[in-house]
């Protein structure tokens, strides 16, 4: 089983403050974490060049983003001292794509940022504004929506009393997918002008086989996190409880094509003779992580 980010509770709802997940800053934090870097936010700022101040700044938000993306493990000791380290996924990415520039990397970071935290009800995400939008709002918001729609959804979900930051937070999430310096190259959201405010339109994950190993890495890690010790699961259970395929935006035909690829690669065994397809893991997560970039040409 791979080392995950050891998140023992969902990230604070407003963890981004007003800052976007800048890839350059995340890459600097990744390199710092490789040596089990530690320190308060001022120390980390001095070592990485990530700007910070006494009351605000980008160090803490970037640490939370990197945790949510499963790049690093992070815990805070006395005196606001952070102890950082790389996850197994973070180690592979640092070695193969240290500047977080490959589209495969960005889709994997997006998948991990949108993953569910635990199996408690109501469902919540590790970074809930992302999980809520990409995994848990298909019925409520539909294929196209406005920022106002998204804000109303978050208010229903978390309550709007004393949460004056929710409007700003929705802007941060949406702009993350418009800025090339962040996750914009995924094109997971497209923006179109329409009426009084822009429409945001969901886009499906790439279906070229060069990306399939990336989704396999996300699939295995989410399985580890939500179903530890289980080697066999019904496809419907995995799909409904994780929201994984909702984040990818795939229909059943594409899901089955990808699963058949996993079978061909010896990563899973699939039994379709029962009511729901049963999936049997045939690999260790570490081995799957090593293949993330196997589809690059």
Describe this structure as you would to a colleague.
The protein has 14 helices and nine strands. With about 300 residues, the protein is α+β, with helices and mostly antiparallel strands. It has a three-stranded antiparallel sheet with strand order 1-3-2. The protein has a three-stranded antiparallel sheet with strand order 4-6-5. Helix 1 (about 25-35) packs across helix 3, helix 5 packs parallel to helix 10 and helix 8 packs across helix 9. The longest helix has 15 residues, at about 210-225. The mean pLDDT is about 95.
Q: Mean pLDDT across all residues, rounded?
A: 93
Count up the helices: 14
How would you describe the shape? globular
Strand content: 5-15%
Measured as a percent range, the helix fraction is: 40-55%
Rg, nearest Å: 19 Å
> How many runs of DSSP E, i.e. beta strands?
9
Unreliable spans are none
Give a short account of the largest sheet: 3 strands, antiparallel
Distance between the termini: 28 Å
One letter per element, helices H and strands E, the order comes to HEHHEEHHHHEHHEEHEHHHEEH
Biggest sheet: strand arrangement? 1-3-2
SS-derived structural category:
alpha+beta
Question: Quick summary of this structure?
Answer:
This protein is an alpha+beta fold and 297 residues long. It has 14 helices and 9 strands. Helices cover 43% and strands 12% of the residues.
Key traits:
297 residues; alpha+beta; 3-stranded antiparallel sheet; 14 helices; 43% helix; 12% strand
């Amino acid at each position: 089983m791979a080392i995950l980010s050891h998140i023992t509770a969902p990230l604070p709802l407003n963890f981004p403050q007003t800052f976007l997940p800048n890839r350059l800053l995340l890459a600097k934090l990744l390199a710092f974490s490789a040596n089990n870097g530690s320190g308060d936010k001022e120390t980390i700022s001095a070592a990485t060049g990530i700007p910070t101040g006494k009351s605000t700044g980008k160090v803490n938000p970037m640490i939370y983003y990197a945790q949510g993306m499963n790049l690093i493990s992070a815990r805070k000791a006395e005196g606001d001292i952070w102890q950082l380290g790389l996850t197994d996924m973070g180690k592979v990415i640092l070695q193969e794509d240290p500047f977080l520039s490959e589209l495969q990397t960005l889709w994997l970071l997006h998948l991990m940022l949108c993953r569910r935290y635990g199996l408690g009800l109501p469902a919540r995400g590790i970074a809930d504004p992302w999980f809520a939008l990409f995994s848990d709002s298909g019925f409520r918001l539909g294929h196209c929506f406005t920022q106002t729609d998204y804000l109303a959804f978050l208010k229903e979900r978390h309550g709007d009393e004393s949460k004056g930051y929710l409007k700003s937070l929705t802007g941060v999430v949406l702009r993350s997918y418009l800025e090339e310096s962040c996750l914009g190259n995924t094109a997971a959201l497209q923006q179109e002008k329409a009426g009084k405010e822009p429409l945001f339109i969901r886009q499906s994950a790439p279906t070229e086989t060069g990306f399939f190993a990336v989704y396999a890495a996300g699939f295995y890690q989410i399985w580890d996190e939500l179903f530890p010790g289980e080697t066999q699961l019904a496809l419907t259970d995995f799909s409904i409880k994780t929201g994984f395929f909702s984040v990818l935006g795939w229909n059943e035909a594409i899901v089955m094509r990808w699963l058949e690829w996993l079978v061909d690669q010896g990563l899973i065994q699939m039994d379709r003779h029962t009511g729901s397809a049963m999936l049997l893991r045939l690999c260790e997560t570490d081995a799957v992580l090593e293949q993330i970039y196997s589809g690059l040409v």
